[in-house]
Design brief:
- The protein is an alpha+beta fold.
- The chain has one domain.
- Helix content is about 35%, strand content about 15%.
- It is globular, with a radius of gyration of 14 Å.
Amino acid sequence: MSVRAHRILKVEYAEIPSFNLWHDEKLINFIDTHNDSGFYSQMNANGGGVVSVEASVIKDAIEKAVELELDEATVEQLKADIEAAEDGSIDYDCW
């Protein structure tokens, strides 16, 4: 574990949001129950923060797009997220 804390100078976001925390509730619940670290447990007391999701969980969610009521734009962005995942996980900044 590191003993030093650094302030963050720059965070880059994808141009298009991957999903909506209010409207994609079924997706969030799916991630929460299938992701090793959950979803909500990674958020701060204000309901925000950085959440890490395993790319395999996002792949499974895409396969269940109809059941999770995901629109085509969300599915396409999730596919782009998987392609961009370098270490097998995807970080989402939720605010």
